[in-house]
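Colleagues,

Please find the record for the two-part complex below.
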Amino acid sequence: MTAFVLYLRLFQYGFRRHSTYLAAALAGAFTNTVFGILRAYVLIALWEARPGLAGYTLTQAVTFCFLTQAFIGPMQVFGRGLSFGDRIRSGDIAFDLVRPAPLLLWSLSEDLGRAAYLAFARSLPPTLIGAALFTMAGPVSPWFLPSFLLGIVVSFGWRYLVTLTSCWTSDDRGMHTLSALLTMFFSGMVLPLGLFPGWLRTVAEASPFAAMVQVPADMWLGTQPPLQALAFQLFWAIALLCLGALLTAAARRKVVVQGG
Amino acid sequence: MIETISLGRDFKVRGTLVPAVRDLTFRVEAGEFVGCLGPNGAGKSTTIKMLTGILTPSYGRALVAGLDPSKQRKALARRIGVVFGQRTTLWWDLPLRDSFELVRHLYKVDRDRFGKRLAELTEVLELSPFLRTPVRQLSLGQRMRGDITAALLHDPEVLVLDEPTIGLDVVAKAEVRSFLARLNAERGTTVLLTTHDLGDVERLCRRVLLIDHGRLAFDGSVAELRALVPDQESIEDVVAHLYLSSTRAAPRTPRRTPDADPPTVTA
């Protein structure tokens, strides 16, 4: 019970930490919306030339575009977002390792707080403006919400692993850049994964990145069998969190805290 | 309260083993105030990290408050307080008060005890003007007082401080020192601190451990330390003399670059 209160508090603080930077969130929402409009026109041109591409109607394609723009914030598609990354670099992580609470649950709670705030500040504006400017498909499946949440957890699980690698590499920038590229490309952020050819599509659709963006968007559109899709997300969420726990244990044994 | 038996830690740097701490054996009784001195890279921080459970020793053993730090880290965390002068445990974007609230939940301190303890610490460390200020806006002196408070909210039996006065101005230093002296005298908290500031040692520590090349080079009172080099006047000169003579006697532990498996450089 007391442990639950701690994680609830961390969730609240994650929310509040990010709400401190209102201007940043608004600027982000503005950018996400403008890019959404640009992408929408590209997709409209594409779908008018090739109707039914990737199994989407034109309305579904435009909806997909604004949904994915809305996911950038909460799913942290461009990576990072975990406070302990900087703390590994600076050596402040020493404190986190002294604390009588596991780093994984600790940062998961904070990250869910972050995502909850960004769901308001950065997901609602592009979705609402998109719906005002274009015709968008309404939420078909009641499974969207759990799928959205699992998307965030999968994204956390992946970013946790990427961030933790800097315990071994001394500098995390390379890994983060690589991770941002992989996530952008394989999540469906650039193009719906249904457009990918042959084996590339198979790989992309089986990857954890699909569970972050493509699957929740498909849940909204109702274009994937819901239980199977949720099971797929749940699999990646559990797998990544377990890997995260194992890697944390390894880091504890191996890691040398930087600096004095 | 703190005991080490031939405690040692090696670091692997580019395939070769570099000993950071070797065969360290000492005892600190409950209620003692002990200062740990030594040149940069001597192994002080490595020792502190082994005593707090952050690093696992390569050999030997340590006991703090009757617990093995590397094996019983969580249980130990509830009984010791840790302050790293160059680090912070506080949440950068949150008001100081909120960090304390998180620490309360983390260490499961009940509300009444927490309120009482925080009120005491707020008074003694004069925190009230900046309790509601986000940590990123605090001066170093204010932040250090905040960090010391955070380390003491769960009322630990042992307080371990790694360079608590580093970077502080004369007034802030004096405040931190007098607080630590009171904590030790009034509550009987065992204090172990590392420092390069000999003022800390002279004013606070009844006992000094000198670590050099990862080994215990001296263990005794400040007066005994002075007596080692009778022709030197100030304690600074005495310690400088000891550091220099040890450098001539034996090669210093190689300095480690931050990109290669980096252990502690600035002790």
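The beta strands of chain B are 2-13, 16-28, 33-37, 59-64, 80-84, 158-162, 190-194, 207-212, 215-220.

Comments are welcome before we finalize the supplementary table.
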